[in-house]
Fold:
Amino acid sequence: MTGIRIRPELCLACKGYRNLCGLPKCPLLERRVTLSRVEKYINGNVTGSSPPSVVVGEYGYPSVSVMIGIPPNVHGDAASSYDNPSEWWGKLSLFDIIRLRSSMVAALTTVKVNDVDKLHNNELAYASVSEKPVDMEALLKGKLSELDINELLTPTPPSARALRIKINDNPRVPKPIERLINDDVKANDAVWEAYRAGIGVYPLVRALSVGMLGRRRSRRLVPTRWAITAVDSIIGNRLRSKVALMPELSEDLLFYGEYLGNRFMIVLRPGVYKARWIELWHPSSALVLGNEAAVHVVDEDYRGRVSNMDGGFYAARLSALEYLSKVGKSAEVIIFREVLPEYFVTVGNWHIRETVKRAFENGPISRGDEVYAALIELLKSKSMIKYMPSRLNRITDYMGVNHG
Structure:
């Protein structure tokens, strides 16, 4: 691949999965593998409590890999921290997250997507949505894979083929999910019903992934990467239909959040709901190969039509719509994400959802006529944008700031 130049915007749109550059191997994914290579063989029993942690892969579809994460020799409540994004926020660094995920082992089995009973019969499906860690043991054989790192998922632990997985505990399935397992309703309706009953995004993603939701005859395993965006989209669309009918916000508001080398500036304007998502990835950040910064934009219009499918947008949009629904207002939403070089490896889009959520929880940092002056100051502070005047102008144009 030496000598081949790829536009950074192409990498942001692709994120390593759409093969937009046409190269036989994605250079981004190759770089991540070198960061996380594991060269170990594992033969024998691994025991511990799954947090719970499950990842359904997509390669080889309709036969997919199902990986159950087990922290070796960690039992009971102590295991819950190994897969708990909402509790990680603000506490763990990138190195902490990679170290935590690397210290688990994923027991890997292959399942056809329409064979949901295979995971139900051995209780792996129930263990995947348990409210508490589930003690289990797995007989594993072979070489551990590398830690799998990508844009949407938390890093997937090193995995090895499971000859046997045994549940040694009684999974505690949340009552709303337990009820929906026995119901015959569409997956969209099931996700929304469980969410309204207080089930969070992360257990809902696992429930959808392992085929516990939907019409009984059409239930399938759903690759986790697809399930994440599906859950964000389903809940967001239901909230959007309500927010669009609410009275408009009375003044401009500015919110701010920061974590893991990602800065989020969120502007709410009076108006009927629509949204714009702007990403600026600086050189040496996780998805930029060369020396140029890259900008990626997603628009959602008044009718709910989205310019392109982007998991980060749907994660941030959900938190914005939750806030608007809570305050009972409609608004135009502009979310700017600036990715600094210290975000050198992606750890999933959970931190987008959580950082935007907390920005709203912390309340506006500016309002009314002061918003745009405060926004310009934010864009220039703790940032590389101040050294890139053309980029600053481009971002302010995207955000509708009058700087003339």
Remarks:
- The chain has three domains: 37-166, 175-243, 253-398.
- The chain has a mean pLDDT of 90.
- The chain is about 35% helix and 20% strand.
